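Exercise: predict the fold of this chain.
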Amino acid sequence: MKTMTGMTQPQDSGVTEVLAMAAGEQARVHGLVHTLRDLGDVRFMLLRMPQGVLQCVLTGDGPDVREGDAVRAEGEVARDARAPGGAELHVKTLTVLSRAAEAMPVPIGKNKMNLSMDTDLSLRFVTLRNLRKRAVFKVQEGVVRGFREALEREGFTEIHSPKIVAQNAEGGANLFRMEYFGRRAYLAQSPQFYKQAMVPVYERVFEIGPVFRAEKHNTQRHLNEYTSMDFEMGFIDSFEDVMQMETKVLGNIMGVLARDYAPQLRLLGVELPRVDSIPAVRFDEAKRMVSEKYGRPIRDPFDLEPEEEQLISRLFAEEYGSEFVFVTHYPSKKRPFYAADDPDDPRYTLSFDLLFRGLEVTTGGQRIHDYAEQVEKLRRKGMDPEDFAGYLMIHKYGTCPHGGLGLGLERLTSKLVGENNVREACLFPRDQQRIEP
């Protein structure tokens, strides 16, 4: 009988280890063949590994290899400024661990593959092997790391809420309905109710997980399943406390990216935005400023149109040097029933959106914490409090002034890396047309 003790075998060297070796040192590596270049008596093989690619030089008779094969190579390190990272491996022994059955359907070795969106997404299992594509999702990893690390330092507890729910959190008709053992259920639009429920438990909580919106939008900014990075915090004095916390979190995200993801940022040509301070402007004032500066009439007094978001971002980038801008005090008519109204003018709420490079990436604000006030607002919006009896337990049995936000991971990532279509920042996008791969 065997027992597992947690002792692992010495691993093969990684890219960074090989690039740090002196000429003449011996190394053993493994990876997948990214590209092959045959010059007759010598072949150059780029090996794709977790940390990057390593150039390997193959000479003489050896096993036949093709792009996509999984191999292990042993040889001698040589310094060469022409090689990626300034070093290459002169292979003496090459072992094929697994063979690709067919040639690559697209040129993944090219810097830009120039594929249509439909082709890219249909072949996503393959196209994600492209180095630029791969770099996008390493950057996304850094965004999540920076978000989690910042909140953990601030005393937040990570939670995991259900994604099959009996009530909708946001209202409206954009719900995925499902049959649940003979009962009606929905895929969660948001972890909102559960975040609020956990404030009296831990005071500060966060979650990173999928949310589902059955929106019939086929645009560059919408997905029907996306990853939301949420937090909720108690004992706030104002919804501005939530905005201050997000500013701190974004600062940490950019710090993590600058420190640990420099190769990916260079490959993608990313210039990180400054977030040492973020300006805030009222919703009605932002509309007025854009209308006056760009001569654009105000058509919707209750919400921001996509063009207005772009113009607000442009205005604050040009005049205030900030690529982020908080837009505050959205009309109550367009905010969910749990949004706290502004006591100075109940037509508006103590809520905000965060715009980044022309796109709304965050929605947040202060929540109603008083039971009677929450019941009254439900009724005012034509909703039956009995339908929200479970949610109202939060208020009925005592909570504190609190607020929070939801930050769209794919939207933030796409804008960071300079992509206009949010699908470029989603591994396997789900929209109206696509449920595969």
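Check your answer against the key: The longest strand covers residues 26-38.
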